[in-house]
């Protein structure tokens, strides 16, 4: 009974802290895609649209005929409760995001506890605290730390604070639930195992990244439970079947196999795409370890040769990481599995041609942040056991230092998260911050210019659009937006020149054609007026 009460208290603490660090997002406005996905989306207003939702690309509600690479049939269903709470006002949607995050943090606690104190084979050593394995406050402390490290980590602010990132939150929630239930099934085809498969399917229908879960579960069977290859493969078959069902629905909804391309990767060869993977891995790992100068957008500066230090040093870091994998496999498979939970969900984010304009983005670290918290705490518990066997004096110091260090980090993370949430207050504050953090981002410059123009600060807006053009001379939007600024200032001839530049890049852009034709009409009227005089 005592353990049960401690567990309930720990879960309650995790849930409450998860909400408290994000409660200041409830007053935040719609930003970026939110402005399109919520006010202009009939699908979130009624369950009658569910048949369309389940059989269409994720953004088909807009009537856009462009083919989409994304089939996320539950995306709009997750937005429905927010609409039911507050209509198109953002409060309800932010509340839903926070609740998703809080529940995810609870399952991080449960998963960490299952990995630390779950049933294992007799030949596998148990993690033990002073009072014995899984007894008293000591048993709850490590999983609690893992959950709070995740709940408060500042890198999660994009996923939680941005309404449109509900796909990240939802896939992650059902991903961690599926993992937890799989661990609890202890190798049996019981109810926990069946529900693990079902929650994996829900995760896949939330976001495609869920495809990394079956390989992760396979490694759990092989590394932690030490099952044979045949049994591990057999355990994966229902998950493969669920994946096939998802893929069948995806092909039906998208009507074809969609090639994944990205304009920013067109000039990179296959080898160059490969050597850009280690720098991305290091960048993601560094943001987990040192979550400062967070930004909504990061400009992609690819490396083109291994001769560059930017390619060679990250490659060396990845080689060291692989060596750590090998060492952990021999001395502590449980800690290795937690490290795999950090990096395996990142694999889809390393395929540059599929990432569009967001080659690196913080929301992709949401599930890895779960693994990060679990890895740190499992590693700390393992370190304590190692030191206790060799030096009692050092163990006493470590026993006090580790909880203090964890508390300091959690407090620092909490403060960083609360402060970062204010950046997401409005689209203006978000893009203003992004331009400061990522001044070489074309997207940030262009978006900030739009926000400045909306506030009548036309000179500053024009400066941002010119900066965007300097960064990317092939960016049609910046030319169009600069033309709009000129038109608002009465500089119609200059505006027409900018619209014409934009049309050379994207001749089919209807909005730019409309702006261009209006400018030509005004110029014609002016010329006719001058002729009459």
Task: Output the number of helix runs.
Answer: 23
Termini, distance in Å? Answer: 96 Å
Parts with pLDDT < 50 across at least 5 consecutive residues: 119-135
Shape: globular
Q: What's the total number of strands?
A: 0
Query: What's the order of the H and E elements?
Result: HHHHHHHHHHHHHHHHHHHHHHH
Structure overview:
The structure is a single chain. This protein is mainly α and 533 residues long. Helix content is 68%, strand content 0%. It contains 23 helices and no strands. The protein has helices at residues 2-20, 34-37, 50-54, 75-86, 90-117, 136-152, 157-161, 166-184, 191-206, 213-224, 229-254, 270-275, 277-289, 309-331, 333-343, 366-390, 392-423, 427-437, 442-454, 458-471, 476-488, 492-505, 510-532. Helix 6 packs antiparallel against helix 16 (366-390). It is globular, with a radius of gyration of 26 Å.
Task: Set out the fold topology.
Elements: H1 2-20, H2 34-37, H3 50-54, H4 75-86, H5 90-117, H6 136-152, H7 157-161, H8 166-184, H9 191-206, H10 213-224, H11 229-254, H12 270-275, H13 277-289, H14 309-331, H15 333-343, H16 366-390, H17 392-423, H18 427-437, H19 442-454, H20 458-471, H21 476-488, H22 492-505, H23 510-532
Helix pairs in contact: 1-5, 1-6, 4-5, 5-6, 5-8, 5-16, 6-16, 6-17, 8-9, 9-11, 10-11, 10-15, 13-14, 14-15, 15-16, 16-17, 18-19, 19-20, 19-21, 20-21, 21-22, 22-23
